[in-house]
Amino acid sequence: MNLISSYQFIAIGVWGVFIILMFIEYFAIISQPFILLFFIISNLKRHPEQEPFAQFDFSRFNTRHGREQYFNRHLKKHAMWAQLWDELYKEDDAYIHSFLDTLYPTVGSQRSLLFNCDGDGNYTIKNQEKSDKYVFPNHEIYRWMSSNSKLNENYNTNNLTFDDDRTLNLDPYYESLFRNHSKVLPKTREFQEWLYKHQNPMKCEDKKYIEVTISDWGFGAVMKHVSRKFVTALKNGYIVIMHRNKWVWASNGDFCRNDRSFFCFFEEISNCSNYYYSIKSGKNIMHYQGNVYPSPFHYPNWLEDFLRDTPIYQNPEAMLFYTTAQIYTYLMRPNKRLLKWMDDYVKNDSLHTDTRYNKIDVAMHVRHGDKGSEMKLVPTMDYVKALRIIQRIENRKNLTVYVTSEDHNAIKDLKEKVKDCTILYYNQKRANGGFKQFRNDGEYLTLVTMMNLREAIRSKYYIGTEKSNWGYMVHLLRQTAGFHFSDLFFEVGEDYCLSVCHCKMMKAKQKTPYSWGIW
Asked: Which UniProt keywords apply (predicted)?
């Protein structure tokens, strides 16, 4: 009897140990989400120069391979990237934050899709003297943010010095922003200073010039191709002169009655333009031959060394992305007449909200119309899939969303179906018939396009597609003149991948998004 009792006791003990082990394993499984949440909450960081955003400590899997495994179910190619945001919305907040932090890594005080995810995370602005100065040495670039940005009356452009910020008389409301170098592409001030000096030499004699033509294409396509010509000219040491031909986007209206060229809206790009046109012979004019475009290697020879101490990924497409953003910023400096027109327009057709920097939460560009001949159009409500992710990031539903589109029905759908957000737009004429329809109203459409551009680059987040030339232009200008380098862009259309790190984790043959190269 005692022997049987001993066996029974042993059996009970074994079963007890087994049950305890099973309980421990079960507890470990169900507790993983709570442990993950604990790590995320305990590792929330806020940099003094950066908007709050959850940062996850990847010490448990601090290699790219580990992150690839963790996010594996979302590291697949999508025909349209709106689908990714739809799938991501089903995850908890912790997963969403850590996924976005991986796609757009933070290095120092900046977060960017350009950054290499294998960096050491210790980047800081090296030149302290430059970091204490205003981001842009040229007062005209600040006009996108504030109309109250001008040159001090005691100075003129002929005596402009980049060593003394007292030449600038800027809006005091934006004082801290305009000195915040973490809000723009690394080394923006240095690049813009070099570019201004290159285009505006002390003497115009004995310089190399090349004249860049401007085409009658869609506005975004024109700006992209002009910028690529500009980049090629810079690489070869030329001062760029913009051709003063009549332009479809300055046609059929009173605003451009006295100047039907590019300069109806924007500032002159060189102080040597008049000298160039006074030369009787020896002019150089750059044209694209058919569909032959410059390769992405046509950026300044010194650019890789210039950016080597930054976290920006070193490859031709990333270098071209950087250079094009800087060229757009210089080319598209609104002149005083355009600035006044935009300010007057706002007075007569107000959005009834504060439109200063970051006061509007989201800018959304819905590209429809004739673009369907070049790419698969993204349905209007697919843009909202990205909007839902931003609501999760901001932890609130009622976002203000500024919408730009040539499609009246897109705005109508958003107003009727997105009830938890405030949809904003200007009451402008909209032409969904494409470029041919624009030719009859070019001047007016350029003016309202600039209004749309100003609101889009001021808003905190941006939803769109870089396969749209206008969307590409907005995205690049937000990196510089918009002071939104570290704020997220949500691609909803077609592309290989969304960022340098995304391309790496997906093991894509293309090392950067397709839209960064020549297309």
From this structure: Membrane, Transmembrane, Transmembrane helix
